[in-house]
Design a protein that fits this description.
alpha+beta, two-stranded antiparallel sheet, about 30% helix
């Protein structure tokens, strides 16, 4: 997956980048990858506690350093869950844990897949919201322009 970005397994071995695999191993695609041994594999993405515990275990070696994380994507957790309760519980727990440990996380969500109420609820929980959208500025444009908006940030009214 990282080949187009020139990221090799050496990057994973430095422990400066931890990749948690929530999909490949259950379907047998992880042979030859750093997660193949099951060290950084989330076995059941529908269980928020398992997801959170695996993230915590993966970050044990970096307690004294600032940590930044990216979850791609919250949409997946929402779609595989039967109800909204487990993903929202995960989100609340993740945000509380991040604040306690001084972690900054970026969570992505695909707005066009979810009901507006779900997206609004997720945005409510988060400290900041950045929205990337494609928009036609002029009627004559052949392709849309990417627009990045800061919708919510700490201290922003």
């Amino acid at each position: 997956m990282f080949v187009p970005y020139n990221v090799s397994e050496v990057t994973f071995e430095t422990k400066r980048l931890v990749f948690l695999d929530a999909f490949s191993n259950p379907f047998g695609y992880s042979e030859g990858r750093p997660s193949a041994l099951g060290e950084n594999v989330i076995r059941d993405i529908t269980q928020p506690r398992q997801v959170t515990d695996q993230i915590r275990r993966a970050l044990l070696h970096v307690r004294s350093q600032p940590v930044r994380g990216v979850l791609d994507s919250l949409t997946t957790i929402l779609l595989v869950s039967d109800t909204l309760k487990p993903p929202m519980a995960y989100l609340q727990h993740k945000i509380a844990t991040d604040k306690e440990m001084g972690i900054v996380s970026i969570l992505t969500i695909h707005r066009d897949v979810h009901d507006v109420k779900i997206v609004t609820a997720v945005e409510h929980y988060c400290d900041g919201v950045i929205r990337l959208k494609n928009e036609f500025i002029n009627e004559k444009d052949a392709s849309p322009t990417e627009i990045l908006q800061i919708r919510k940030a700490p201290g922003m009214t």
